[in-house]
Give the backbone structure.
Amino acid sequence: MGSAIAIVGAGPRGVGILERLGASGPELGPDGIDVHLVDPHPAGPGRIWRHDQSPLLAMNSMAADVTMFTDETVVCDGPIVPGPSFWDWAQALRADGDPDSLRDSLGPELATELAAVTSSTFPTRRLQSAYLSWVLREVIAGLPPGMRAHVHRTRAVGLAEDGDLQVVRLENGDVLRVDAVVLASGHLDATPTDEERALAARADDAGLTYLPPEQTTDSDLSVIAPGGTALVRGLGLAFIDLVVLLFEGRGGRFEPDGDGLRYVPSGAEPRLVAGSPRGMPYHSKPHYGLRAGRPPLPRFFGPAAVDPLIGSGGPVELGTQAWPLMAKEIAWGWYHELFVGHPGRVRLPWAEFAARFSRLDWRSPAMAELIAAAVPDPVDRIDLVALDQPLAGVRAPDLGALQPLVRERIAEDLRQHVDPAHTPHLGAFVAMLSVYGEVTRLAGSGVLSARSRAVDLAWWQGFFNAVASGPPGFRVRELLALSRAGYVAFLGEGMWVDVADGAFRAGSSSVAGGPPVTARTLVDARLPGPSASRTTDPLIAALLADGAVSEEVLRDAGGTVLRNTGLIRVRPSDGALIDATGTVHPRRFAVGPHTTVKVAGAFTRPGMNAQSLRYNDAVARAVLRSLPGARAAAA
């Protein structure tokens, strides 16, 4: 009798685990493995990338920057099994399929989009859905002999044990008896926090409308009335989705207007006043390629630097012991691209600059002097503080006076991310991806102080998101057009919100005077924070109640709780679940943003030794080794 595995969550993460199971199955697994993919949403795309969403919503990655497959750069123990990136897939479809068959398989809208897509296009999420659906079919077709995949379009609601067997109870009444389980559910919905509940109660008492954090595509936006003013807290990707759905989604349109766009209203749109701690939308995604090729990474924040920190036993402070090396690594990516890709804009050859740069401390006056002497134009020098705090020092007497100041900074940031003269931004972006993986290793080792995990890691994640996970440039152009037309106003950094005198009130540290902005609607434009204890997922909730999963609670040396991260504890090396007693379960695993191992995205750029592919491989191989009769166990 063969073995069986259940993967709860059949979006890109779950499919990535399946692909790696297939790759290492012949080496590690027993003969005959049934893999059950469980998800109420379409297998392959999953919830986030499902076809059933607005055709206006786009990815924040270019077509050439998306793949689900390993390549020769990926350093992992499992076999490398190359496969087409999104762009390769799109080109192959166009080359092999006639227009009629493409319309039949994709539908007329996606067939038209496919015909026009280029390597630098930001495709719609619906076209990405088609790619991910194809990837799943390709992975299933390529599974080794004896490994079979079964898709269950339902929800997993319970998990128990019968001896060594894992018993997965499904919402449709079926029961799966398997040997190992992988929880790959992605972002978990959650009930509101205490603060959010209190705000909702005060809003309800005043007859106000409050939309708490949730997936924007699942929100009931009909409660935001045309012509009214809504406050928005959050300027990340959920905010961009909100803007798309409330303006173009309600019939508005954008027309060319010189170098920018002009918004033509439909009459059904509201007015938004939006702010956040940083006060600016995420930095635009770069719209160009590297001129100098991939920077030589890691250089300053790789295993040679991180392993001694891990070996020290801690406590390690990320901000003082790791950040100087992290910052130097990010700057290394920037300056490699500048010196090698744009040699006419620097005063030293790369080899000389690199040698001197390598010897200097990132924070030293000598480093600042080297950069100033070698890079004459300040715009060509990386400014990490400005990237993190784009509105620092910006003050205005009122909201109206603030708008041109914010728009000026957004427009300049956009210019640098779409103009190929500024490809060093992409060099820094690539370096940040490398740094992210090493930070994950460091965080998973247990040597970071509780304070550093509670404060510094949260800052780093926010900084990474703001710099590396922004919207496409065309969305920023649309946002600027809406601001110029008076439909979107920026509240500035340090946004605050309260309820008083029968209305929501909001202000920020950017506006020095004037009355607060008032509105009868507030939208928290972000995903719920991770929280196993507040999750609405019945499976995770039941496991937590039974003590079979545990949340990460950070305490100082005296035992005082600094923060409950809400993340499910897993063994960093392979995602094995850790229960309330601290015991690692031998046959239960979890991977994704709801766990203590942070991986930058479920899919990734080709040719970058991607962290997500390496981690999928490690988890899949651990799952295979856990099976009865596994070859590794016998060895």
